[in-house]
Amino acid sequence: MNNRPKSTHWADITAEKIIREKGDKELYTCASGITPSGTVHVGNFREIISVDLTVRALRDMGKNVRFIYSWDNYDVFRKVPKDMPKQEEMAKYLRKPIVLVPDFLDGEESYARANEKRLEKLLPEVGIYPQYIYQAQKYRNSDYADGMKTALQNRDVIRRELNGSRTSDLPDDWWPISVFCSQCDKDTTTVLDWDGEYGVHYSCECGNDETVDMRKTPWVKLPWRIDWPMRWAYEGVDFEPAGKDHHSDGGSFDTAKLTCKEVYNHEAPVTFQYDFIAVKGRGGKMSSSAGGVVSLAEVLEVYQPEIIRFLFAGTRPNSEFSISFDLDVLKIYEDYDKCERTYFSKPENDKQMKKWEKEARIYELSQVAEVPTEMPYQIQIRHLTSLLNIYAGDIDKVIESLGDVKPSQIERLKRRCQCAWNWCRDFAPEDFRFSINDENSELLEVTDQERLVLQKLNKVVDENLGKVTEKEFGVMVYDIARELEMETTVMFPLVYKAVIGKDNGPRLVSFLSTIGPYKLRKILNRY
RNA sequence: GGGCCGUUAGCUCAGUCGGUAGAGCAACGCCCUUUUAAGGCGUGGGUCGUUGGUUCGAAUCCAACACGGCUCACCA
Question: What is the pTM of this model?
Answer without folding.
Answer: 0.91
